[in-house]
Design goal:
The strands form three sheets. Strands 3, 4, 5, 6, 7, 14 and 15 form a seven-stranded mixed β-sheet that branches. Strands 10-9-8-11-12-13 form a six-stranded parallel β-sheet, sandwiched between helices. Strands 1-2 form a two-stranded antiparallel sheet. It starts with a strand and ends with a strand. The protein contains nine helices and 15 strands. About 25% of the residues lie in helices and about 25% in strands. α2 crosses α3 and α5 runs parallel beside α6. The chain has about 325 residues and is α/β, with parallel strands linked by helices. The longest helix has 13 residues. Bound molecules: NADP nicotinamide-adenine-dinucleotide phosphate. The site of NADP nicotinamide-adenine-dinucleotide phosphate has 29 residues, from α2, α3 and α9.
Length: about 325
């Protein structure tokens, strides 16, 4: 019998979640049944979209249940298998994070070939955030030669990859982030103009100064004042990929965009997307990022919290911004 600690949702937060909204529990796992696999999680991801799942409302993913373990992307190692497709030692990806170990039917477990990448890369550059950056920039925003690209939450998991892919493809990139360390990180990545939204009172003015001839693509991770600034600076026929709007995930009042009417005259395209519709491109993504890393063209930065008991705190750091790059929890 294997003991596993897991994090459960104790209450549904109405505003910014607190540690009191989570509880830690311990469960005993029997040996896996026929057709099941037992997995020990090595790494788990905390992601902003999980905040939406804490609210009891219909969406593209069902809400988390109270008093049940949360769920999310995790990479683990098979420790026992009663399914022919898996053997002990296989590295697998599932959506059964927020727990140290579990038994599950083989159908919800995906074997991954690490290649040259470390396991946790499959939760960042070669996982959901990587896919959001890759698909959002190349397919949704339809990046074209010569485009000037603006990215918000640019030092984060998705944003830092958007910036780097755009630089690899030869574009001028403007990135917005909060705080001096993160601004320095963006400079290290080769971002051409960095906006510190925490010290810049007027994001629209800062963006116009950085891109006097306007922007062609905005990759939106934040919404509100950032989206309004992007619409203001957009050239005719600019494309805006709506990846996320984290500034409104905790019930904050909307800060705009108050200038949406400009989208008509400028003939803008604003297009939302969700990675679940693009999972078929995960293999292509892993191959691309492996190549870029091997060529020294792509960096992956992580902020790591250790231990399942630190997972709620790691999640809250997505909203305080107290981290650089991908926020991860190391479980073993
Ligand atoms: N559409 C999809 O399928 C999909 C998939 C993955 C992610 N996403 C979205 O992509 C965005 C980025 O996700 P991620 O995983 O890469 O997270 P992340 O950027 O690594 O972490 C969240 C960052 O959001 C910024 N932030 C938080 N509150 C903010 C506020 N009020 N105003 C401005 N910035 C704020 C902070 O940036 P600073 O550190 O710069 O302060 C924080 O570091 C999120 O909106 C997420 O929901 C969408």
């Amino acid at each position: 019998m294997l003991m596993s600690r897991e994090v459960r949702l104790k209450s549904r937060p109405a505003t910014l979640p607190t540690m009191a909204d989570f509880e830690l529990a311990t469960v005993a796992l029997d040996d896996p049944d026929e057709g099941e696999v037992q997995v020990q999680n090595l790494w788990m991801s905390v992601d902003p979209y999980m905040r939406g799942r804490m609210v009891d409302r219909p969406s593209y993913v069902p809400p988390f249940e109270l008093a049940q373990p949360l769920q999310g992307a995790a990479v683990g190692k098979v420790v026992a298998s009663r399914h022919p497709r898996f053997k002990e030692g296989d590295i697998v990806r599932t959506m059964l994070g927020w727990r140290e170990a579990f038994n599950a039917s083989a159908g919800v477990i995906q074997k991954i070939e690490l290649g040259s990448l470390p396991p946790q890369a499959f939760l960042s550059i070669a996982g959901g955030p990587g896919l959001a950056a890759y698909v959002g920039l190349l397919k949704i925003a339809e990046l074209k030669p010569g485009d000037v690209v603006f990215v918000s939450a640019a030092s984060g998991a998705v944003g830092s990859l958007v910036c780097q892919i755009a630089k690899i493809k030869g574009h001028t990139v403007i990135g917005s982030t909060g705080g001096a360390d993160k601004c320095r990180y963006l400079e290290e990545l080769g971002v051409d103009h960095v906006i510190d939204y925490q010290t810049t009172r007027d994001i629209a003015a800062a963006l116009r100064a950085a891109a006097p001839n306007g922007i062609d693509v905005y990759f939106d991770n934040v919404g509100g004042a950032h989206l309004e600034a992007a619409i203001d600076a957009a050239r005719p026929f600019a494309r805006i990929a709506l990846c996320g709007m984290i500034a409104q995930y905790n019930g904050e009042p909307s800060e705009g965009p108050r200038n949406i009417l400009l989208a008509v005259a400028k003939r803008l395209t604003l297009k939302g997307f969700v990675i679940n519709d693009h999972l078929a491109q995960l293999a292509e993504l892993a191959s691309e990022v492996s190549g870029w890393i091997a060529a020294g063209r792509l960096k992956s930065r992580e902020t790591v919290a250790e231990g399942i008991d630190r997972a709620p705190e790691a999640f809250l750091r997505l909203f305080s911004g107290d981290k650089i790059g991908k926020m991860l929890v190391k479980l073993v």
